[in-house]
């Protein structure tokens, strides 16, 4: 088994057709505030992918985060955790072919940060295992020199693959010889299975205390 894990291309035919099609005529992604001053010190970067995590972060941590910039086309928000040099990126929705564009957009933070952690949710039906699985599964993919922390979960097993922005981020950090980790949550019902795990992670990452789960808008697409 590879220590680094496996990073895969789109799993569906539709996604492959999108990747292989003609160049997109969509405008280049840009920050809303061009005058945003890049921080000189970045201790940690946290990246959350997907509609559910967008609502979870907004509902539970908005009092501890300061909005610094946005990219409205993909629902990307950049926050600074108050009283720290830690930054949070929350990506609400994006087309997979634009993954590289998103990673390039946040590349300064990925280059400068001492630590990088990403979190994404996937449907439990996508998790491949020789044994039947009926409850949530949490796995990680790490760079070869990742630093130890309190978020200890088993490594993602082959033939499961990491995709999306998390895959691009971890690939870049590995290429740069820097620490990085992705947490992948395979869940069947995020309302019951994921909220507690997310709350524990947020507390360990010192983002802020969780609020009531009822404040999270669940009338959305729950997966990235």
Describe the structure.
- A 7-stranded mixed sheet has the order 2-3-4-1-5-7-6, sandwiched between helices.
- The chain has helices at 13-20, 51-61, 99-105, 107-112, 164-176, 190-193, 195-204; strands at residues 44-49, 65-71, 76-81, 86-91, 115-123, 137-142, 181-187.
- It has one domain (39-215): PAC-like subunit (Rossmann fold, 3-Layer(aba) Sandwich).
- Helix content is 26%, strand content 21%.
- A hairpin with a 4-residue loop joins strand 3 and strand 4 (86-91).
- It is of the alpha/beta class.
- The chain contains 7 helices and 7 strands.
Labels describing this entry:
7-stranded mixed beta sheet; 7 strands; alpha/beta; 224 residues; Rossmann fold; 26% helix
N→C terminal distance: 26 Å
Mean pLDDT: 76
Rg, alpha carbons: 17 Å
Structural class label: alpha/beta
Briefly, what is this?
The chain has 224 residues and is an alpha/beta fold. Helices cover 26% and strands 21% of the residues.
Give me the secondary-structure topology.
Elements: H1 13-20, E1 44-49, H2 51-61, E2 65-71, E3 76-81, E4 86-91, H3 99-105, H4 107-112, E5 115-123, E6 137-142, H5 164-176, E7 181-187, H6 190-193, H7 195-204
Parallel strand pairs: 1-4, 1-5, 5-7
Antiparallel strand pairs: 2-3, 3-4, 6-7
